[in-house]
Amino acid sequence: MFVGPTILHADLDAFYASVEQLLNPALRGRPIAVGGSAHGGVVLAASYEAKAFGVQGGMPGWRAARLCPELVFVRGNFTRYQPLADQVMDILGDVTPAVQRISIDEAFLDVSGSVHLFGPPGVIGAHLRERVRAEVGLAISVGAARTKHLAKVASQVAKPDGLVVVEPEREREFLDPLPVALMWGVGPVTRQHLADRGIHTIGELGRATPGMLRSLLGPAAGERLHALAHNTDPRRVSAGQRARSVGAQSALGRREPTAELVRAVLGHLAERVGGRMRAKERAGRTITVRVRFAGMRSVTRSVTLGAPVSSTLTITEVAERLAWQAIGDQGEPVPEVSLLAISVSNLGPQRGVQLELPLGTEDPWRPGSAPGSARWALDASMDAARARFGKDAVGYLPATLGRGAGVPDDFRELAEKDLG
DNA sequence: TCTGGGGTCCTAGGACCC
DNA sequence: TCTGGGGTCCTAGGACCC
User: Which sites bind Mg(2+) (predicted)?
Assistant: First the structure.
């Protein structure tokens, strides 16, 4: 058994932006942003040339344009991303079946069983990088180490277009000078909390007592950070994990929450969520609605039902009730709404015709509602029509929603892709 | 000039049960 | 009489990741 840095983390560099530069040579070497515009919207990804100016994914377009006046905004060929990423994952899978994909563009590999065939992890990493470059045309960075967390840190350090192998006897030397923000799970809030205690590097974090970290960050986060800093995190590479929730959301700008608007948006979201659950033969007991108000404050309301549901109509009805509860709790005057979201969790298998009854009514034949079997038949025919004629063939998306919703549908398709 | 869309995990308080 | 301890589930909120 090979003992050493047998966990690899492989991560495509600036993936969406790199694909755009691959597809359009005129964009190569230039600062580009995928998504957004100089006037609005959100940048989904930035090329390294743009990152040099401080442009980052998630940033409003107008701010990105101010940071980098030559920035080129491209709309994004969203349908091209998934196949290219899949092609890369296939290459990774050629050296080991133990590939855990954690997003569209990155994966962990356990190569402990592969070293006798392909050589040490550093050689495997270099080989994978060459193949991805030659066969797909993209740069991928690879980190190799004894644990997942350290491999991920190593790939971040390797970027752009690099390979970093952390030998076991040099782990401390490698980790200690790095900023805490490179650690998985340390975001802006935690980084600030640590900075307030004079902790800026992973080395400094390693010298903090577990008790101090627990009281500062809570038991779980404190424990985990302590383990990460000492590189004793035990997580293994595991292929295939089921989703724990299915959700959809829609940003609305600022809108007065009329009955028509709320019903239309929630109906549309429920259709997306329900359709995806039915496609996976899953159903869920807990339905959560999030309402974000103008000013970005948001509240959630949820309910757990006695039985799992996946019908569009049932989800719509429950979601509507929850949304009005959330809005009503804000008091007068009724605030403007900037986003609605539905998520279904507590998932389990969905089998056969469900007995989904309209909530809050004893009589399933109440006008305007449908009994369980009718709901199931309705969903089934809608799903079938969509499968045959395309996703826009049926269902309803009122004209009031059609415009101004910033994100292309192709991106939604991509974002909802099941990676399990 | 005004902030996307998809997720995971954790915490705290309360209800409820034994 | 007036109050123990443990466990589970639910709800709301928040940090974080890609």
Answer: 11, 105
